[in-house]
Backbone:
């Protein structure tokens, strides 16, 4: 426990300061929370763990600034693929910048020695924008030196995303190489439950050409 406290990073202090300033000031802010239930957890063409995952989130927003938490946890004890992330984002208008701290706790929420929440083991700096109906995103992991670039667009009712990964240091996206790691075709619909509530559903067919892998994912949003 003392090791964990002694290794709290500058990122944690920035998050706490930003949230405290946001809440204590007179500016208006909004909060939101919810969760997705997915048949499997596939991120940028790679599957994490196995089986069904619940993916909760919490956000606090004021104007163009947003702070949030996102997690993914298997619904079975042996599923694996636990993840708990924190992020800060600011929308400058033509470009949004996000800093995300990815962490991977073990069973029961505990971390392995040398790792921990907000310790900055896996920090990504990303930027996103939209140009003539095409969404562009680029993210760079500072520790493992991995670059990911994705473009997305709509083709009728289908959302298409194409992602390229480049591993400069460790095997991260493309097993130490570079190439297309994520081609996804996604759709969504709503099932009417009552006059005031509809249940959002979504699905994705995902290809990872670099690893010759394919996935079909179904999800429900709450």
Residues:
């Amino acid at each position: 426990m003392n090791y964990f406290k002694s290794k709290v990073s500058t990122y944690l202090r920035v998050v706490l300061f930003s949230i405290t300033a946001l809440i204590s000031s007179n500016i208006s802010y909004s909060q939101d929370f919810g969760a997705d239930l997915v048949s499997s957890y596939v991120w940028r063409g790679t599957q994490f763990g196995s089986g069904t995952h619940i993916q909760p989130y919490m956000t606090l927003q004021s104007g163009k600034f947003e702070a949030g938490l996102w997690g993914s946890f298997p619904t079975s004890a042996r599923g694996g693929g636990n993840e708990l992330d924190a992020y800060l984002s600011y929308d400058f208008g033509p470009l949004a910048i996000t800093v995300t701290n990815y962490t991977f706790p073990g069973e029961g929420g505990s971390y392995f020695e040398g790792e921990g929440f907000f310790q900055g083991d896996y920090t990504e700096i990303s930027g996103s924008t939209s140009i003539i109906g095409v969404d562009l995103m680029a993210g760079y992991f500072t520790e493992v030196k991995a670059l990911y670039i994705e473009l997305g667009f709509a083709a009728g009712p289908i959302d298409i995303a194409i992602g390229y990964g480049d591993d400069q240091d460790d095997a991260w996206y493309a097993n130490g190489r570079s190439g297309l790691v994520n081609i996804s075709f996604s759709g969504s619909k709503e099932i009417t439950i009552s006059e005031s509530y509809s249940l959002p559903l979504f699905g994705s067919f995902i290809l990872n050409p670099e690893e010759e892998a394919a996935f079909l994912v179904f999800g429900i949003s709450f």
Q: What stands out?
A: The longest helix spans residues 10-24. Residues 87 and 160 are 25 Å apart (CA to CA). The first strand starts at residue 30 and ends at 38. The chain has one domain: 2-221.
